[in-house]
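Quick start: what a row looks like.
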Amino acid sequence: MSVTSWLRKELDFVPSWKRAAFTGLSLGLVLSLLMILLQPFDTYQYQSPYKNLELLGYTPCIMLSMLLMVPLENGLFHKQGQSWQIWNEVLVLLLGGILMMTASHIYNVLTISGGVPSLRSWWLFIKGFGLPFFIFLAPLWAIARQKFKAPPAPIIPQKEDLLFIKGQNKGEQLQLAPTKFLYAKAQQNYMEIHYWDDRGIPQKQMLRLTLAQLQQQMPGAQQIHRSYLINPAHVSDITGNTRKRFVLLNTEQVSLPVSPKYYEALKKQLSNSAQ
């Protein structure tokens, strides 16, 4: 696998304010506690009656930085059609790390070391303090982002438009969702329409109309014989030879005849549906 392919690999991730706040608070406390307990980088030389409380001040710097990354994450996430790839994750980690180190530097200068923030002091802080800690925190942050990811928003299916099939007799009508239609068989002046009801149970209804009239009211139906219309979405296989062919419907386990006249059109329709 190439680097480009790896970077475009999909991740299961949904940006979340709650997740960012929780992760930022947790990692911020880890950072502050490390400085309080281990006192790295000459932290022991810093004398203040509120030393531990001031060192805990790095926690909101980390948490605030992670919260500020959420709008960027949401923007990328929705711009890519609610897709999240490894390169997105790497970008967020790098930009988030720079933001965390910058926020921590400003806090350090204004609260602990004193002075005025400058580009030089920012670089010295990042080189001597920020990068060592970020190298330690970055893997924990990456793991936490996947561990405490927000669940994806439920997909609400769109309501399917209904067809109103009218027969020739007064008041004769069948209300039907296109995907529920299975097949129809011509019987003299009537059409026997087979379909699923809302419970998924096969049903049939007779309407007085011709095959051509029914096909006009059901644009998705495919004619396979002078007496049959089917829903191509329910075809599981075509069997037989050039003289006699049949379609198998996976929904009712029925076999219906296919005339040579309609075979090529059916084959093309099934091929287009499979793509």
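That is the whole record. Residues 163-274 form a domain with the OB fold (Dihydrolipoamide Acetyltransferase, E2P) fold (CATH 2.40.50.1020). The longest strand covers residues 181-187.
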